[in-house]
Amino acid sequence: MTTVDNDNPPAFLAVTQQVDLQRRLREESRQLADGANDLPSLRKLALGEGGDLESRWRAAIALGKLHDLAAVSSLIDLTNDVAWEMRHSAVWSLCLLADAAALDRLIAICSSGKLDEQINYIAAMGLAAQFGEQGKRILEANLQHDDASVRAWARCSLANVSYR
């Protein structure tokens, strides 16, 4: 039986207890709350109008968390960004928004073997989890796709949803 030493947590947990991290999390929570009052600024930041890469992808995620449906077209544009972090964040947020306008782009992403696998899998999971029977039918059709990776994403996504 393993004992837990609360005075000396494992290194991976110790990092989460550092003061700087706690301060950063509080600041991010404050910024998220402020962002809810200024969604146009978050959209601009996500699209690259000022800010570094980390600020941009965090802004893209915030748009999804804040359920900013007006950001769908901007997030769709970001799925073609050169930075994988931006593509990943945009797809994740589009899945959170579960908007009909995002459906075609998510279908294209999860049906393509050309994008990176993590982003394709996120799109497939979003279809399975957020778009109900319609998403399920699309993924079932992808089980017959020519590309083995597309079939694998569909299989994993459908399996994940069926166990919920």
Structural commentary:
The chain is mostly helical and 164 residues long. It has two domains: 11-97, Leucine-rich Repeat Variant (Alpha Horseshoe), CATH 1.25.10; 99-164, Leucine-rich Repeat Variant (Alpha Horseshoe). It contains ten helices and no strands. The chain has helices at 11-14, 19-36, 39-46, 53-65, 72-78, 84-97, 100-110, 117-130, 132-142, 148-162.
Provide key terms for this protein:
mainly alpha, 10 helices, Leucine-rich Repeat Variant, elongated, 0% strand, 2 domains, 164 residues
In terms of structural class, how would the helical and strand content be classed? mainly alpha
End-to-end CA span? 31 Å
What is the top-level CATH class of the largest domain? Mainly Alpha
Whole-number tally of structural domains: 2
Question: Which overall shape is indicated by the principal axes computed on the Cα atoms?
Answer: elongated
> Which CATH-level-2 architecture of the largest domain?
Alpha Horseshoe
Do you know the CATH topology of the largest domain?
A: Leucine-rich Repeat Variant
| H/E series | HHHHHHHHHH
Q: How would you state the average pLDDT, rounded?
A: 80
Q: How many helical stretches? A: 10
Low-confidence residue ranges: 12-16
Please tell me how large the radius of gyration is: 18 Å
The count of strands amounts to 0
Helix proportion range:
over 70%
